[in-house]
Write a structure and sequence with these properties.
4-stranded antiparallel beta sheet, alpha+beta, 12 helices, binds manganese (II) ion, binds (2S)-amino(hydroxy)ethanoic acid, Aminopeptidase, Alpha-Beta Plaits, single chain, 9-stranded mixed beta sheet, 36% helix, elongated
């Protein structure tokens, strides 16, 4: 079986960490100067590993193997959240590079074709999983049209600033890939709490987002009597409170919802706010709770609008991501490799985070491997994993990749 090079793996992860470094964390939002610098570096590393590297028209970096036969796509994303951890996405991107090099250095696997990829904007600066949607042909004009970030920068402007506008956008070649493997940090506490070292992902949550816009009347905070107010912020607080009251009644075991972005204008202590925005995001492993949450939110808005005073509009805040099952056959290869390298220290589990694999799975059989996140922390500069778990995860992925490709080529 192929052997990874732990020092080379850790060195490349640390080099990538240094691009956009911010204390212990990383700030490398999609299309930022740091993001594009990282992508150019990744492309060079792909070429040095013998792949044919391309940065495409939405910023995906694809390293295509020159070997014949069925290929395996391996990778993740190298863009980060505004306050990103150093491993979210980066782990799977560098694992893919190391798997390519490990396969190439073993006589039994050097002929196998592993393609490596770093997807763009998985973190939803503009469109969640923009790159994997584009590569798999599920990025519709409707999703792309009007994509704008939280500072009002449009996707079109970001593409222009990154020098990508007009560059060809790559698509996966139909029938080329036997599967897609994405390794990722768990970003939650389950593996770390259980003392487990490898997670074999069974499914990825689906996600929806809604944006509520509140239009009231701006006025003086001292002279405007309470009965006459049309306070946009008070309406926002009421809706948020009622969502937190009602959603638990429709929640399933792993349902989550977050209201992590709000805007109150003019955001001044002596002014009754006339305008407010609230973003709601909710996730679950199946569609039914997502449907129920959306219906509850719309019902609450209708009830508040019927009272008058502040008008509430509902807009789609992001392209929905459906819940996705991971491919059973690919899972078995990851599980077999985990049992070999971490006997008794691996488990099957769902993913509470969404991932590019959830998008790619619509076109190519996909599977994921997790390593533990220390304390379950992620989307925070404090995100971290133990070196020994990082190394173990990559070796398990390399074994699984070799087994999948060997079986795929044996089938012809
Ligand atoms: O939010 C997520 O689940 C992913 O980490 N972007
Ligand atoms: Mn991620
Ligand atoms: Mn993330």
């Amino acid at each position: 079986m192929p052997s990874i090079d732990p020092e080379r793996l850790l060195a490349d992860l640390r080099t990538l960490r240094g691009i956009g470094a911010h204390g212990r964390g990383v700030v490398r939002p999609a299309f930022s100067a740091a993001d594009m610098q990282a992508r150019r570096w990744i492309a060079r590393r792909y070429e040095e590993a013998g792949l044919e590297a391309t940065i495409d028209g939405v910023g995906n970096v694809l390293g295509r193997s020159r070997n014949p036969g069925k290929a395996l796509l391996v990778g993740s994303h190298s863009d980060t959240q505004p306050t990103g951890g150093w491993l979210d996405g980066a782990l799977g991107v560098i694992y893919a590079l190391e798997v390519v090099r490990a396969l190439a250095s073993d006589d039994a696997t050097r002929v196998l074709a592993a393609d490596a990829v770093s997807f763009q904007d998985e973190e939803s600066r503009f469109v969640g999983c923009l790159g994997s949607r584009s590569l798999t042909g599920t990025l519709t004009p409707d999703i792309e049209r009007g994509a704008v970030d939280r500072d009002g920068v449009t996707l079109a402007d970001a593409l222009r600033q990154a020098g990508l506008q007009g560059a060809p956008r790559l698509r996966v070649a139909p029938g080329r890939h036997a599967g897609f493997l994405e390794a990722h940090i768990e970003q939650g506490p389950h593996l770390d709490d259980a003392g487990m070292r490898i997670g074999v992902v069974t499914g990825i949550v689906g996600l929806r987002g809604m944006r509520f816009v509140f239009r009231g009347q701006q006025n003086h905070a001292g002279t405007t009597m309470m009965a006459r107010r049309r306070d946009a912020a008070t309406a926002l607080y009421e809706l948020a409170h009622r969502i937190n009251q009602e959603f638990p009644k429709a929640a399933a075991e792993r349902s989550v919802w977050t209201m992590g972005r709000a805007r109150i204008e003019p955001n001044a202590t002596s002014i009754v706010p006339g305008y407010a925005e609230l973003d709601l995001q909710f996730r679950d492993a199946s569609e039914a709770p997502l449907e129920a949450f959306e219906a509850i939110a719309l019902r609450l808005v209708a009830e508040m609008n019927a009272r008058g005073g502040v008008g509430i509009e509902v807009a789609r805040a992001r392209a929905p991501i459906p819940p996705t099952r991971m491919d059973e056959g690919l899972q078995e290869h990851i599980a077999a490799a985990a049992a070999r390298h971490a006997p008794g220290k691996w488990q099957r589990m769902p993913s509470g985070a969404f991932h590019d694999a959830g998008i790619v799975a619509e076109r190519i059989p996909s599977a994921m491997l997790f390593i533990p996140s220390i304390g379950g922390i992620s989307h925070d500069f404090a995100e971290d994993s133990r070196d020994e778990d990082i190394v173990l995860g990559c070796q398990v992925l390399a074994d699984a990749a070799a087994a999948i490709l060997t079986a795929a080529n044996a089938r012809g």
